Amino acid sequence: MNRDKKTGILLGAVAVLLVIVVGLGIFLIGMKLGQKKGESRDIAAAEDLPVQEETPALTRKPTAAPTEKPTPTAAPTSTPTQAPTAVPTQPSSVSSDSYRIDAGLREWTSQGLVFLQGDYITLYVNAEDYNNGLIGWEANAEGDSLKIYYPKAHDSGHGGTVVTLMAFDWGENGYENFPNYKIACLTENKKYIAMFPTDVQYNPNDSVQAEEYARLRQWASNIDQDNSSNPFSAHE
Prior knowledge:
By secondary structure, the protein is α+β, with helices and mostly antiparallel strands. The protein is built from four helices and nine strands. A hairpin with a 5-residue loop joins strand 4 and strand 5.
């Protein structure tokens, strides 16, 4: 092969290669331009779409668990303690301008004793004798003396007086003429005198009356302001 022919073949190969390179470059350039146009269209289309504001996600408030109402429980009921029964008070018979020794006098029992208690005086007696009907009492019409008597003898017509309690003002001394008396109690306004009968106050032919009356007289003999066992007291 001569030199000129080789040169021609080489130049033809170079020319073909150049054509291929140029064509490939044009192809690549076209694709690049097409890609840019597509992106431009996408951008334009995106700009034409309305912009949607982001809607914040709703935050749900935590719902408190329903609170069950507690079942009311009944308060423990304690057994009520009965209040002590007050001693019934009888209407006072004393007026605003006069005195009565039996004003508000009433009877009540405590620890084996029966008390006669009023607005001004208190006298206690043996409960057994009282419950057996051995002791009675009554005030005079003027209200300044109170007679304690033995009902069995009294009802049989023998008097039955055990002791008579009398109230005197401090300026009065009529009791000094009594044959048998003791000062029962002294207060700021009154002198209380215990007067004892000097004659027989029971049926001497009745041994039961004799024994019971003697026991009552023994009890009444303690009515004395100087006796620590005095069953009589006064209060104003």
